[in-house]
Amino acid sequence: VQLQASGGGLVQAGGSLRLSCAASGSAFIINYTIGWYRQPPGKQRELVATATSGGEAHYAENVRGRFTISRDNAKNTVDLQMNRLKPDDTAVYHCAAHWASREYWGQGTQVTVSS
Length: 115
Description:
Largest sheet: 7 strands, mixed
Order of helices and strands: EEEEEEEEEEE
Shape: globular
Strand content: over 45%
Helix content: under 10%
Radius of gyration: 13 Å
Number of strands: 11
């Protein structure tokens, strides 16, 4: 599975950004849980949100209510709408796909939130 992330950038606190992850390379992408993770500067990577093909979404507590993950099974894309961004949201964001023991990661996209 190949994952192509896009949509990062620089935004002021309180603003919004939308990230997109396009998955390809497998006939079984629908089986994968696809999500977004981030690694803030000097910190460990952490979960942001995940989505199953059946519509189940899971959010980290610190983004719940501000971020929305959506998945288009026909296009094999997973978007992350990020609203009310905070400087603490500054990180490299990665999309990843998981199914059983299979795990794939896309390249990161930088999100920088200025105060």
